[in-house]
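Design a sequence for this backbone.
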């Protein structure tokens, strides 16, 4: 048995594990929160600002799962579009160094633009809400995919490239037989980073004009001064992120099982 096995608790049959220390820390946090909720007046804080765990649980029960599905669909759709567009541009830049010299500074410039600026541009430029949200997500996540992919391709060793070129492969064979296997670990890491980023960005984008989605529900909760609903939707967002990351981890374990 591994030394750390005793310090882990199996969460599900899928093999997910949560360290015992993390469970203890979460339980302590919940107890402290409940104590703070029951003693809000003593702390000089309005009772509604620190809702009880029971109140948050009731808000969780009323969560509309349609909004959860809509937000997840927006995130996954935008990430797939971002990845496909970034892959095409990254391959072009890798194959044509002159294009990289001109385009790479522009990509870095796009990465420096704050998210709030992209949201304002989307509101000013586009009429349809879905296009606005998709535009913001692609503008934020696309450059990260591109930079990671280009850096990974350029990081493939010269010896491997020379060996493959000795067999006179076509361009498609070069990418399928060498580049894709070599950069796959970095691509999966990039997906994890962009997934976390996209979940945070989409909630902000949905605050502007959207009538569905988790970001819209957070806006409604804020307008109603319902702190319990804000906490409930925040917990759902975190749970969705963990679930999607777990799926990516399973994919990573499967396609990179040769590393074990």
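Sequence:
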């Amino acid at each position: 048995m591994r030394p750390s096995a005793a310090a882990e608790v199996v969460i599900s049959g899928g093999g997910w594990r949560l360290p015992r220390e993390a469970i203890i820390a979460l339980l302590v946090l919940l107890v402290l929160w409940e104590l703070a909720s029951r003693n809000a007046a003593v702390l000089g804080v309005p009772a509604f600002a620190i809702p009880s765990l029971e109140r948050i649980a009731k808000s969780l029960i009323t969560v509309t799962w349609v909004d959860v599905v809509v937000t997840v669909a927006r995130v996954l759709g935008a990430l797939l579009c971002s990845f496909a567009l970034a892959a095409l541009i990254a391959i072009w830049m890798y194959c044509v160094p002159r294009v990289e010299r001109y385009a790479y500074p522009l990509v870095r410039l796009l990465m420096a633009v704050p998210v709030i600026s992209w949201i304002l541009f989307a509101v000013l430029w586009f009429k349809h809400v879905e296009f606005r949200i998709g535009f913001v997500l692609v503008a934020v996540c696309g450059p990260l995919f591109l930079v990671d992919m280009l850096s990974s391709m350029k990081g493939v060793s010269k010896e491997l490239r020379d060996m493959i070129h000795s067999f006179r492969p076509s361009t498609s064979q070069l990418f399928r037989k060498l580049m894709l296997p070599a950069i796959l670990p970095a691509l999966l890491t990039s997906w994890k980073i962009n997934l976390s980023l996209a979940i945070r960005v989409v909630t902000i984008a949905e605050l502007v004009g959207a009538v569905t989605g988790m970001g819209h529900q957070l806006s409604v909760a804020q307008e109603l001064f319902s702190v319990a609903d804000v906490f409930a939707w925040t917990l759902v967002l975190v749970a969705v992120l963990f679930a999607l990351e777990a799926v990516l981890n399973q994919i990573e374990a499967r396609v990179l099982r040769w590393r074990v």
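The first strand starts at residue 8 and ends at 10.
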